[in-house]
Amino acid sequence: MIKEYLHINKILDLNKWKRLQDSLATVTKLAILTVDYKGIPVTSHSSCQAFCQNVRKDPELLPYCQKCDSRGGLEAVRLNEPYVYLCHFNIVDIAIPITIDGKYIGAVMAGQVKLADPEKGTDLEQIVTSKNVPMHAAKLKELQDDYDQLPVMTYEEVVKISNMLSLLCNYIVEEALNKNLLVEMFEKASGNQESLNLSTILPGYSIRNIESIKKEMTNAIADAYLKNSPSDTESSSPVLQPAFEYIHSHKSEQVSLKQMADLCHLSPSYFSRLFAKETSENFTTYIARLKIKWAKQLLEVTDMPVSQISDELGFNESGYFIKKFKKFEEITPALYRKYMQEQ
């Protein structure tokens, strides 16, 4: 049964996927394209840089770009993990394989950035080299202004983003597949009264591990948008440091005082006193204020629905989130976003 779904365009609503791809490109500053298992694009480029647009329009250079895409995708499949490499113009690109049950169904191609610390990328492979060096040099000189405008990021940022995209893309594809199969399962069950088991449809999958992946992805999505300065996660008290790190790296969770006290190997009452001394607020107020601060950032830089922001930050339901937001900001999230967009 699962073979029927191994075509990415049958699993995903490509219009919705493209909107997500556009948002990811905006947040990560990467150009992103999705291809099927044959390497054929199933979406248009999101945020394709001017330099790469012009290179791909050049009939002499386009074959090099296509070879990079093809070989990058094949290497990612071979490794079964994101593959970071250099194109024929030494620009950083990423191939992220999308697999289901060990079977390759497509890839997300991302990149079009330069390294801020090229010395850390010396191990990156230039996957395609020019057979006509003078021609490449002349083309680069012609497009130098566009080349200079390419985004720049550190090698560490590239690796972290590639891992986040891999987790996100595979989770979404698996969730879509699960939904399709569950619909079919219930249609069959209603038709012939058979009792079907999830393990029969999806060997190796369970509700528990799907929920675990979902929690990881919720944290990854929030982290992709929210950047913490070192001071946000550092405590003047080494004893409390594990709690601050956990709070900031698990934005989608409802973190309890007892949970954090146990993490710091303290009694709840002693943890509460230390925490209040450190932050000048009690634990509950601090967590609520911090989540509202994150919510404001998400309202300002994304078009996420209020209900999704509520979910991303671990509120029980959007009505409670709106109530808390209004308590701290004296305005609803929707009005806050509208006000900020008018500035």
UniProtKB/TrEMBL annotation:
This is Chemotaxis protein CheY. Keywords: DNA-binding, Transcription, Transcription regulation. SUPFAM superfamilies: Homeodomain-like. InterPro entries: Homeodomain-like_sf (IPR009057), HTH_AraC (IPR018060), HTH_AraC-typ_CS (IPR018062), PocR_dom (IPR018771). It comes from Paenibacillus xylanivorans. One of its GO terms (molecular function) is DNA-binding transcription factor activity. It comes from the Bacteria. Residues 241-339 form the HTH araC/xylS-type domain.
